[in-house]
Amino acid sequence: MSDSRVLVILTQGALAGQILNEAVAALLVWATYGITVQVAFSHDAIALLSPASQGSKINHFKSVRSFIGSFEFYDLPPAWVLDAPVPVDTIVEAQTKCMENINLQDFKAVIRW
Predict the structure, then answer these.
(1) Count of structural domains, the chain
(2) Among candidates 85, 70, 83, which has minimal Cα distance to 37?
(3) Taking 60 as the threshold, does the pLDDT of residue 112 lie above it?
(4) Residue 103 sits in which domain range?
(5) How far is 18 from 5, CA to CA, in rounded Å?
(6) pTM (2 decimals)?
């Protein structure tokens, strides 16, 4: 299965709740089993790359940020930030990528959450 490449595009922010939690947990399971997972953040999900602010009312989604912060332990490639600048204080390594420059044919599956 190591030749499998999956592109996961996260578009929802912390308000997506349990669905977001399960989506990030699923991509980590795939990475555990040798599937190469490229994670891309877009729209509201880009805010998940920054550490939670101290006064945030959405701290109950801390586990999503913990999952994202653990990407390095799963040997995931640097995350992509689609069509937007990378936040200054990211919790994982990230780089800007234009959606139009991504060859979707390079991936066995493209999943959008």
Answers:
(1) 1
(2) 70
(3) yes
(4) 5-112
(5) 25
(6) 0.88
